[in-house]
Amino acid sequence: MELLGRVYAVIGAAGILTALTFVSLLIGVLVHGMILLMAGKPIDDYLRKKGHEIYEPGSAK
After folding, report:
1. What is the DSSP string of 5-28?
2. In a domain, 59, yes or no
3. Does residue 10 belong to any structural domain of this protein?
4. CA-to-CA distance for 29 and 52, rounded, in angstroms?
5. pLDDT in tens for each of the 61 residues of the chain?
6. Burial state string for 22-52 with b = 16 or more CB within 10 A and e = fewer than 16
7. Is residue 27 part of a domain?
8. Closest listed residue to residue 52, CA positions, set 61, 2, 43
């Protein structure tokens, strides 16, 4: 019976660690995504300086 309790304890601990890792990665991806979305104008300006054409909505090219 003690062995069964230890097995359940290991499974529970692994589940909690997995959930914490998943949530940390999810929050990190969301934060980086928000930063990239807010930095659209500086990224466009940087690419324009490099000589790349920036797509303008409504332009027929």
Report:
1. HHHHHHHHHHHHHHHHHHHHHHHH
2. no
3. yes
4. 27
5. 999 999 999 999 999 999 999 999 999 999 999 988 888 888 777 777 766 666 677 766 5
6. eeeeeeeeeeeeeeeeeeeeeeeeeeeeeee
7. yes
8. 43
Instruction: Give the angle 50-37-55 at the CA atoms, nearest 5°.
Output: 45
- Cα distance between residue 35 and residue 46, in whole Å: 16
> DSSP letter string over 28-48?
HHHHHHHHHHHTHHHHHHHHH
Q: How far apart are CA 42 and CA 10, in angstroms?
A: 48
Tell me how many domains the chain contains: 1
